[in-house]
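Listing S7. Sequence submitted for prediction.
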Amino acid sequence: MKKIYIMLSYTGTAPSKVIKLFSKEKYSHVSIALDSQLKELYSFARKKVNNPFIGGFIKEDINGGIYKKFENTKCYIYSLEVTDEQYETISNIIKDFEIKKHNLHYNMIGLLGVLVNVPIERRNHYFCSQFVSEVLLKSGVLNFNIPSALVQPTHFYNMKDKDVVYTGLLRDYSDGINYSYSTAAI
């Protein structure tokens, strides 16, 4: 068995404030990591720190980029146990996204579909929670039983059977080893 990590976050950027306004939830962004140090952290988001209009598949850096600019980013990190085979599948899916990253775009229109509860799926277009949901669905780890184009960060937050690794300011996160506690403690 291995672990993967899901990070929910709220940076306080203008787009995150809009998402939070409509969702009325604590976190507006979700990412997936293959390691507890979050060095292999992936999502769909802005590609350039100062331009929220150009987005796509990105490898996130918890010590740089948008997280460095918005140093008061709040996060909620948890782990999920997966089989070796599922971990390998997740890794391969992410590698495939990485290879195609120049042809992948942010699904802004898809976010509008979430607002009206109508899934809008576009080829090579994803928003953060849609991407993470697809990875988990295709690897056989998790199925929310709704189209990935309707999955929101709150679906990940409200999951059962997860091990919370850390909650707090992202800048204070070290590696997750010292923070792990069960969801029963929340």
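Caption to Listing S7: primary sequence and predicted structure tokens for the chain studied. The helical segments are 14-23, 65-69, 84-99, 108-115, 128-138, 153-157. DSSP finds six helices and nine strands in the chain.
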